[in-house]
Batch of 2 targets.
Target 1
Amino acid sequence: MKVTQTAIADVLIIEPRIFGDARGFFFESFNQRDFNAATGTDLTFVQDNHSRSAKGVLRGLHYQVGQPQGKLVRVVRGAAYDVAVDIRPESPTFGKWVGVELNEQDNRQLWVPPGLAHGFLVLSETADFLYKATDYYAPAQERCVAWDDPDLAIDWPLAGSSPLLSAKDKAGQAFRGADFQT
């Protein structure tokens, strides 16, 4: 696999080696040993999640306090613009974000380590989004920063339209003053 650093050192773009011919393709979407070597971690994944969303749906920016989740994310059908925001107060990139398109054509993945907020915007008619998590979902620990927070100034590719949001995401907190306890 090929690993590319982003502007936030711990956030990585992971590209698998794809073997294809006239019959289709094969690739290893996850290998614990290779993942740990590439990321310099010894984390394991405890939960796999799958979401399907329509075009224009924006989910995020989600994170958990006390029980932060690292997420290895990918799109298996369609395309999405994926964003990670560094919410670790001690980090030199605190308050910075990175965004990357994930799609079914190139099968790239994004590693979002524990301590970052995460969100995505669906670019295609629908998108199936898979992610592996390093800790269990804990509703009482979940928090949400507003997707359109002016301090973050995320450049979502909305092309002048408004995203479709859940009630939870509409109620996202301002970055300043958000709960980032660990």
Target 2
Amino acid sequence: MKLFFLADVHGSAHYMSRALELFEKEKASYIVLLGDLLYHGPRNPFPKDYDPASVVGMLNNVREKIIAVRGNCDSDVDQMVLPFPLMSDHGSILVGNRRIFLTHGHIYSPENLPPLTKGDIFVSAHTHIPLASIHEGIYLFNPGSVALPKGGSRNSYGIFDNGDLVVKNLDGKVENRVIVPGSWI
């Protein structure tokens, strides 16, 4: 199973459209949305082509392909216009005997991990800075932000494909990677 990770869209119709093109190009099974989909947030500038209503339409067109968790900028009002579940602070995907733990990153983070087993993958966003590493046997992954990158990073997304965790920029160039060994069947 190939997963496409996307985070921190912050209402950008331009970057949401580009991300959906990349999702199709990557031929992933699901889009995993890690929060902060529609609202830009009070600490962020307006992203390019800020148009939350258009982002809603784009997401609704692929609703059957979406797995999502709530970000700190997502609200009950957002859930009213999106037909897929969005309001959980965390979730898990089980692949083989491994767990991929999903969260935005404002509650659980690499500095405040939930209880995980060695070999599990912790996926978060929130910082807008890509990450692919291992810490004490736990794989840490952050696809960065598609719309508002920070810390000198580029606009990016993430891919999980049979244990390969990759952060790519919007040109498809690999920015960061970590390989999780073992069986993923």
